[in-house]
Amino acid sequence: MKPYIYITRKLPEEVLRPLLDQYEVEMWEDENSSVPRDILLEKAQKASGILSMLSDTIDKELFEQSPNLKVVANLAVGYDNIDLAAANEKGASVCNTPDVLTDTTADLTFGLMMAAARRLIEADRYVREGKWKSWSPLLMAGMDIHHKTVGIIGMGSIGEAFAKRAKGFDMDILYHNRSRKPEAEETLGAKYADLDELLTQSDFVVCLAPLTPETKGLLQKEQFQRMKSSAVFVNAARGPIVNEDALYDALVNGDIAGAGLDVFEKEPIDEHHPLLSLKNVFALPHIGSSSVETRMEMMELCVSNIRAVLEGHIPNTLVNKD
Ligand code: GLV
Ligand code: GLV
C-alpha cells in the first residue's frame, strides 16, 4: 500500500504530479471552504504526510490520533497553527515556506501602507459611486510616505525586505525585534528602537512579527495611545498580535489616523465586522504572499518537503530542528 498524503485544500493538479507515483494523495476538494475538523482528524489518522493551510489547527489531539504521521508541511511562513511540542513528542517534522514569499509579502505590505496613506481604496470607491463631480484641491488628500518615519515591529526576512522598499522611498526606518540586525542597520540605515520609542516616533507602524507567546496581544490600548494621532497602523503578520477592540477604539477616538489590515484576530471576517464600519480602515483577506508565482512556489516547496521526509531526507525548510 502506498503511503497516504492528505492535502487540506484543493491545489492545482500539476503541483501534485511529483507525488502521484509513490503516494496515495487526497485533497479537500471544496475551493471555498476549509476542511471541517472531524474530516481533518479522520484523514490524518491514516496520513503519513499532511499539507496544511494556516487556517487548519494541527494540534496535540491530531498528532496523538495519527500513528503514521511523519510530516506536516504548512503552506505559510507562519506556523502558529501547529503545536510544535506535540509534533516533537511524536517525532513528526514540521515544515513551512519561508524565503520564497519574502519579497511578495513585503510588496503587499508596502502596498497596504500606501493604500492607507493615500486613501486609494476609498478613492476608487468614490469614483465608482459616481461622487466625482469636479477636481478639487484637497480631494482625497492623504498623507505622504516619503521622508516619513516607519516603525517595523518584527525584523525578520519580511521586515528587512519591507525596510529595503522603505529606504527606496527615503523613509526613516525604526525597527523593534528580539535581536538586533546589524546588517539592516548598516545597509538600510534602520535604527533599533524599544517598542515605546518606535510607537511614539513613527508615522507608520508596520507589524511583521510572527505570532508567538511573546507577541500575542502585544498591541493594546496603551500602545495605540502612544502612537501619533496622525499615525497609520499596518498589520500583515497575524491578527492576534493586536487587541482588535483596542484598535477599534483607537481609530474611533482618533488616537491613530488609520489602519491597513491584511490579518484579523479571527479569520475570515465578514462584512459586519466592527472595523469595517470605519472609513479609515482598509481590509484585505490575508493575501500577503498571494501572487500566482509565489503561491505556486510555496506549494512546490511543501510537496518537496513532504517527499524529503517520507524518503528519509532532511527537508529544505524544517521548523522543528531539534
Ligand atoms: C502567511 O500569513 C504566512 O504565514 O505565510
Ligand atoms: C506574513 O503574512 C507573515 O507571516 O509575516
Structure keywords:
322 residues; alpha/beta; Rossmann fold; 2 domains; seven-stranded parallel β-sheet; five-stranded parallel β-sheet; 12 helices; globular; binds glyoxylic acid; hydroxypyruvate reductase [NAD(P)H] activity; D-isomer_2_OHA_DH_cat_dom
Might you state the CATH topology name of the largest domain? Rossmann fold
- What is the residue-mean pLDDT, rounded to a whole number? 97
Query: How would you write the strand order of the largest sheet?
Result: 8-7-6-9-10-11-12
CATH class of the largest domain reads Alpha Beta
Shape: globular
Radius of gyration: 21 Å
Number of helices: 12
In the CATH hierarchy, what is the superfamily of the largest domain? NAD(P)-binding Rossmann-like Domain
Classify the beta-strand content into a percent band.
Answer: 5-15%
**Intertermini distance:** 31 Å
Helical content stands at 25-40%
Second-tier CATH architecture of the largest domain: 3-Layer(aba) Sandwich
Identify the bound ligands. Answer: glyoxylic acid
GO cellular component, one term: cytosol
Domain D-isomer specific 2-hydroxyacid dehydrogenase catalytic: 6-320
GO molecular function, one term: glyoxylate reductase (NADPH) activity
Keywords: Oxidoreductase
Summarize the structure.
The chain is 36% helix and 14% strand.
Structure in words:
Helix content is 36%, strand content 14%. By secondary structure, the chain is of the alpha/beta class. It folds into 2 domains: 4-98 and 292-310, 3-Layer(aba) Sandwich (Rossmann fold); 102-283, NAD(P)-binding Rossmann-like Domain (Rossmann fold, 3-Layer(aba) Sandwich). The chain has a 7-stranded parallel β-sheet with strand order 8-7-6-9-10-11-12, sandwiched between helices. The chain has a 5-stranded parallel β-sheet with strand order 2-1-3-4-5, sandwiched between helices. It is globular, with a radius of gyration of 21 Å. One glyoxylic acid binds next to loops. Residues 6-320 form the D-isomer specific 2-hydroxyacid dehydrogenase catalytic domain. This is D-glycerate dehydrogenase.
